[in-house]
Design brief:
binds magnesium ion, 293 residues, 7-stranded mixed β-sheet, alpha/beta, binds flavin-adenine dinucleotide, 7 helices
Amino acid sequence: MFDVLIVGGSYAGMSAALQLGRARRKVLVVDAGVRRNRFAAHAHGLLGRDGVEPAVLAAQGRRDVEAYPTVTWLEGEAASARKTSDGFALRLASGEEHHGRLVVLALGVTDELPDLPGLRERWGKSVFHCPYCHGYELGMGKLGCLATSPMSIHQAAMLPDWGETTYFTNGAHEPAPEELALLERRGVHVEREPVAKVGGAIDVTLASGRTLSFAGLFAASQTRPSSPLAEELGCELEQGPMGPFIKTDAMKETTVPGVFACGDAAIAAGAVPFAIGDGFRAGTAAHRSLMFG
Ligand code: FAD
Ligand code: MG
């Protein structure tokens, strides 16, 4: 019987595990190793580790966590979870089952991109969603912004701080007059001709064959928690601008007592520093719950 079962051993899950391990609590981390930023060569904006390789950061985090003898790490996938009389049971894809008093879901999210030829292969390389993460490195070169929903207008309006911006409405929506005024104020060019494909690093080819070249292309993905475990346990989801995420209170407890959630899966728009902070909160809150009920 573990004190806490943590699903997801990336930045959020490891940060939760670190606090619980340091409190000498028995923790199981189950991790499938499919981190959201695995497509990117560098992670930016993390104080003290700006520009670190995501896999290097994850490997260091795992060493930090595994230094504590009460932490058990299992590589694999948690296939299902259920409430038991004295806590929770987690069944792995391998068939083995583990029991714990509390659960922390640190599942991350999965990105869904529009079905545009050439887009997915360039995700994290020359196609990005977050200018704070990847804008600076584009060196004030020309930027494209591909509308994926009416929310994309906000992304387009931010981008001129990182480079001259062209906004491709691509049939996703027609900006309202006040939105057009905002784009004009920010100096954004609006292109209404549909996008046929992207190529090179990075060329945007329109339906007519006209091609525009950019230093980078921004496209907001739609996101959803990477596994249905939260729904399975009965946790409520909340609708954010990018998609659903797990609803939690200020202590990162979900609507199901004893189930905590942290990181991208439990915030509206995630980033590595948030995931680490959120995991700290969930880990310490789970510990409080073990101590004081
Ligand atoms: P994740 O890192 O996504 O990890 C979730 C973990 O849970 C994975 O290991 C997964 O395999 C595991 N998991 C899920 N379900 C199960 C299951 N059922 N059983 C077992 N394991 C499971 N942020 C920045 O701050 N700076 C950047 O430069 C940056 N660049 C990015 C670039 C790209 C292309 C993308 C897409 C995102 C980027 N981000 C960046 C965001 C960053 O990746 C996320 O905020 C961060 O990874 C969230 O951490 P997390 O621990 O919540 O989830
Ligand atoms: Mg995690």
